[in-house]
Write a structure and sequence with these properties.
Layout lengths: L2 H24 L2 E5 L3 E2 L1 H10 L2 H22 L2 E4 L1 H15 L21 E18 L6 E17 L4 E10 L1 H11 L10 H23 L2 E7 L2 E4 L12 E12 L6 E17 L4 E8 L7 E3 L3
Parallel strand pairs: 1-3, 1-4, 2-4
Antiparallel strand pairs: 4-5, 5-6, 7-8, 7-12, 8-11, 9-10, 9-12, 10-11
Helix pairs in contact: 3-6
Length: 303
């Protein structure tokens, strides 16, 4: 082989290698995540209760944790929040009636160029305080921690503006107590410590990220070998050793006879698996029940 041919070969090989990341990236959908905001009524109530600082700390932690948890799923190309703020600002201008709505430079509501999905999350309830009860006759007292955090998440298909999914995510006193005990956090009365705040925010962000991934990209069987399957969910994507999943085979697509809109595909349960190994990009599971598990089958956690 001549030097010229070798040089051309190396050039073509290098060009092909450089194209691989672009090809992989093109298969990853983009997701815009707006900053989490409280409802107006919640802002007013927290102001009156003197909990504005606590709420703001939760908001700040949730914003960063939500980005981290979505990034850990390895399913999306994330759009920077700073970019979204500017887009949303322009959308508000367009909807305010003070601008020419025929101006093509103003983006339409929930239609973001280059962004496939758009997630809006709102906190509609936040409570963090203690209650002390006194027992009649003995005068003994008991203190109970009350904690609630409720977030409404709305996922839009930004190419059409259609609402694809809406869900409510909650963390209550029981979840709060479990997180506190697992991590051995000391919590001051009615005031979240920095460590506890991050732990609560991370738990909530993980719930939201995993739900969105389940809606758009359900966990699926990649490989079935003997009594073991490999699935397309790894570390940080809501999979842990010991978790069990029901396995469903996908049937025919279901079409609403009136609206002609697809309702998804029929799902028939064909088994159950238990996670035995979790790697960064995939997991392995032992088959517990099998009446037809095969490649492409969908996995869902029991409700």
């Amino acid at each position: 082989m001549t030097a010229t041919l070798i040089t051309k070969y190396k050039t073509c090989l290098l060009a092909g290698l450089l194209m691989i990341p672009a090809l992989v990236q093109a298969q990853v959908e983009s997701l815009g995540i707006a900053s989490i905001t409280p409802t107006d009524s919640l802002k007013q109530s927290t102001d009156k209760a003197g909990k504005t600082l606590s709420l703001n700390r939760v908001l700040e932690s949730l914003d960063s944790q939500l980005l981290d948890r979505f990034n850990a799923t390895r399913k999306f190309q994330l759009v920077a929040q700073s970019d979204l703020k500017e887009i949303i600002k322009k959308q508000d201008q367009a909807n305010g009636g003070n601008f020419n709505l025929n101006d093509k430079s103003l983006p339409q509501q929930f239609k973001l160029a280059g962004t496939k999905y758009f997630l809006i999350t709102t906190i509609d309830d936040f409570q963090d305080y203690t209650e002390t009860a006194t027992f009649e006759g003995t005068g003994d007292t008991a203190t109970k921690r009350i904690f609630r955090l409720s977030i409404v998440g709305k996922l839009y298909d930004s190419t059409t503006g259609a609402l694809k999914e809406s869900a409510n995510f909650q963390t209550g006193s029981d979840d709060f107590k479990q997180i506190q005990q697992q991590n051995h956090y000391v919590v001051k009365s009615g005031d979240l410590s920095d460590e506890m705040m991050v732990a609560v925010a991370r738990s909530m962000a993980e719930k939201i990220a995993n739900h969105v991934v389940d809606v758009l990209y359900p966990a699926k069987v990649l490989i079935k070998r003997d009594s073991e399957v490999t699935i397309n969910r790894g570390e940080g994507a809501g999979v842990a050793i010991g978790d069990t999943f029901n396995v469903f085979a996908l049937g025919e697509e279901m079409i609403d006879p009136e609206t002609k809109v697809s309702l998804g595909r029929e799902e028939v349960k064909v088994g159950k698996v238990k996670i035995t190994e979790v790697d960064p990009k995939f997991s392995k599971a032992q088959i517990v029940e099998d009446t037809g598990i095969d490649k492409g089958a969908v996995l869902r956690k029991p409700q």
